[in-house]
Each structure stands twice: as structure tokens, then as C-alpha cells.
Amino acid sequence: MKRFFLMTLVGAFMLVPGAQSLQAGGRAVLTEARVRQVVTEYLLQRTENMGVELRIKKLGYSGEMALPSGVVSYEIIAPPEWEGWGRASLALIVRVDDQVEKNLTLNLEVEAMAGIMVAARQLDYGMVLKPGDVVMQKRDLGLIQGRFCRNPDEVVGKRVRVGMRGNTPIHGDYLEKPPLVKSGQMVTIIAENGAFRVTATGKARGNGAEGDLIMVQNLNAQKDIQAVVASDGTVRVEF
To answer: Between 10 and 58, whose confidence is greater?
Structure first.
């Protein structure tokens, strides 16, 4: 008899063929190895294309459990905020012929090794990071709190807003774009649409990095307007 296991993944259901150990008489046995297989498949699909190497450190299930004869399926339910690594309590619902046979709680701990950006040395407040200031290392994501950076493009060229010691994982919240425009600076205001382009001289009313919306005084009209800081240091207004 063909048997399947059913996995819940971000609100969707997926039916995947699977094998079962059988007792004499054709009864299925839920073994630790089988539970590990089901959970592993779930984790691999949940973290697909995320570039992590997974290892279940703690499963929260041992021994063997006999099940009635029939088509066996499994449903895994995880906390919606869980990323797929670290510690979590998962529900494993075992059904036989679509009837709930067991509802197990798995206290899981998952190691997820992946490359992240780490401070190569002491990084002081106000530094603008260069390639030599950071290095990529493999770390267990389950041991890192917050939104960490995994790509050099996320950190190089950014300014340090929270000082870090060497070998510290770099979080996105620790960095900011360096301001291209500073308060009081004279700037070129560019107003354009598909057909027209008008420029004027202005004075920045605040600091702004690329993409920031700041107040600018139009010196010709003596009027404050909102403008977006462009990569070349100009500020742009759409009309």
C-alpha cells in the first residue's frame, strides 16, 4: 500500500510519497527515524533557496509508536513567526485514513549554518565601511538575534551607527546610509516629468541619504518643499 505524508507550509499543503516501517500484520510503526525524516523534509522546503545547511540538534521524539493499518499522513504546524532554525515547538499531527491518530508536540532545535557578514576588526561609530572592514563567515543562524546581513552589498559603503567589536555579526540595524546632503548645504533642485525639466537652487533643511525625503528651501521662490535625495547629491521633485 502506498503511503504519504502531508506537510503544512506557510498556509499551503503538499503531498509527498513516503515509506513506513511495518509490523507483522501490516501495521505501521512511527519510529524516531521516520519523524526525523518528516521534519527534515519540512525544514528543507521551508528554507528552500535560503542558502542554509540544516541539522536537527534536538527532535523531541524517541522510541516507537504503533499505528493502525491504513494510509498514513503527517501534518506539521509551526509557529508562523518561526524562520526554520533555532528552538521551536512544532505540532506533528499523524492521521490514518484521514482520521487523527496522534497529535504530538516536538520540542525542536535546529542548527542552520550560513554565511553572514562579520566585523573583521573594531568598527567605530561613524565609520564608512570598506571591503576590508568586513568578512563573510559561516555561523549558526539560530544563535544570532535580529536582522543580520548576508551580502557584502548590504554593508560596504554604509556608515556605522552602533560600534562593534571584531568578530561581531553585523546587523542591518547597526548601519545606515551615509548622508549625501547635510542641513544648510546648497543643493540643486530638479523638478521633472516626462516632458519638462526645471532646475533651481535650494538649501537643505535637514540631512539626507540617497532615497531620503527631506525639506528643501527653494531660494528662488522662498518656499520650503519636499524633495528626494538622488545618488548624485541633487534633490528631485516630481510634478
So the answer is: 58
